[in-house]
């Protein structure tokens, strides 16, 4: 599988940093891109709408300055996540700003939209759509997405429940375009394993919460350091869509993480007037199952350097076996 031209030679390792609701900001995105992976953020993190224009202006300017100063090691492209859910009353405005700034990569979630894809394609941008099953994957490609993000079991945030082995296998039976894999990928060996399964790029989120650049409370970052896979619970209660959350944060909110009721998707609301998503994620903290790899709060560049060392070491081990 060949990567799109805009990504070739621009990545130090085959990784996209997932857009983290509330947490991802220009500081984090710029650090990720400078270190050679695609950094991303949800457009809804920039509030009010005028802030999104400011963020995009800053990211473009700082990455361009970096590229002029380091022509032999240019930054990776950046990405913006657009929520296509019907309750997002900012989608049209956010899309217009992505077109204005010619955002290189757009990640769409919670609904595949032909009009969104066409708008991004109008200037040559790429659209990757995140999916939790083969049915949604086929719909996304039918509606014009360029690539897919397979959100498998163990991923942070709104995750699926399907094994990455099964999900990648099903998608690769009919799709040979760009495929990203998400689900407890937290070290270099896992990145290589994702490629061995058939993915082109690993999609990593939780590791970057425990960085100084991330817009997360210090207690949240420390909870990642102190937790492991057993501390993650899968629930639909908080947003109406199933996701993975840290059990200690659920207990701190006065709930029993082992006895949570279900919710329904109608609870979801991305409207600017009453964002239940923001309220949920403020007190109950999302995280994937791979956090056992988080040993401390370190800069994003150090996280990426570690992943690169582990990835190269994994390739050497594999070649020795072969």
According to DSSP, the number of beta strands is 10
Unreliable spans: none
**Roughly what is the average pLDDT, rounded to an integer?**
93
How far apart are the termini? 22 Å
Shape: globular
Number of helices: 11
Strand and helix order: EHEHEHEHEHEHEHEHEEHHH
Largest sheet: 8 strands, parallel
Strand percentage = 5-15%
Q: Could you estimate the helical fraction of the residues in percent?
A: 25-40%
Sequence of strands across the biggest β-sheet:
1-8-7-6-5-4-3-2
Rg of Cα set:
18 Å
SSE-based structural type: alpha/beta
Provide structural commentary.
- This protein is of the alpha/beta class.
- The chain has 11 helices and 10 strands.
- The protein has helices at residues 26-34, 49-69, 91-100, 114-121, 134-142, 164-172, 188-197, 218-226, 247-252, 276-283, 300-321; strands spanning 15-17, 39-42, 78-83, 105-109, 126-131, 147-151, 179-182, 201-204, 232-235, 243-246.
- The strands form 2 sheets. It has an 8-stranded parallel β-sheet with strand order 1-8-7-6-5-4-3-2.
- The model has no long low-confidence stretch (mean pLDDT 93).
């Amino acid at each position: 599988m060949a990567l799109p031209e805009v990504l070739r030679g621009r990545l130090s390792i085959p990784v996209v940093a997932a857009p983290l609701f509330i947490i991802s900001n220009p500081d984090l995105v710029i650090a990720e891109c400078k270190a050679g992976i695609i950094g991303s953020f949800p457009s809804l993190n920039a509030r009010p709408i005028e802030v999104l224009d400011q963020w995009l202006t800053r990211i473009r300017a700082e990455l361009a300055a970096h590229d002029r100063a380091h022509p032999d090691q240019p930054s990776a492209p950046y990405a913006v996540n657009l929520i296509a859910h019907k309750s997002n009353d900012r989608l049209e405005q956010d899309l217009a700003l992505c077109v204005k700034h010619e955002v290189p990569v757009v990640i769409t979630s919670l609904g595949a939209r032909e009009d969104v894809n066409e708008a991004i394609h109008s200037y040559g941008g790429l659209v990757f759509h995140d999916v939790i099953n083969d049915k949604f994957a086929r719909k996304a490609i039918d509606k014009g997405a360029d690539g897919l993000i397979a959100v498998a079991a163990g991923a942070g945030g709104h995750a699926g429940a399907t094994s990455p082995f099964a999900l990648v296998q099903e998608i690769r039976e009919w799709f040979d375009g760009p495929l990203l894999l998400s689900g407890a990928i937290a070290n270099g060996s896992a990145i290589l394993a994702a490629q061995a399964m058939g993915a082109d790029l690993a999609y990593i989120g939780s590791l970057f919460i425990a960085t100084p650049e991330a817009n997360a409370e210090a207690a949240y970052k420390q909870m990642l350091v102190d937790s492991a896979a057993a501390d993650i619970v899968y629930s639909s209660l908080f947003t109406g869509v199933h996701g993975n959350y840290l059990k200690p944060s659920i207990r701190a909110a006065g709930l029993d993480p082992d006895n949570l009721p279900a919710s329904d998707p109608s609870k979801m609301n991305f409207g600017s007037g009453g964002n239940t998503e923001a309220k949920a994620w403020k007190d109950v903290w999302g995280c994937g199952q791979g956090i056992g790899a988080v040993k401390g709060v370190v800069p994003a560049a150090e996280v990426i350097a570690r992943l690169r060392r582990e990835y190269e070491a994994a390739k050497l081990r594999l070649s020795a076996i072969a």
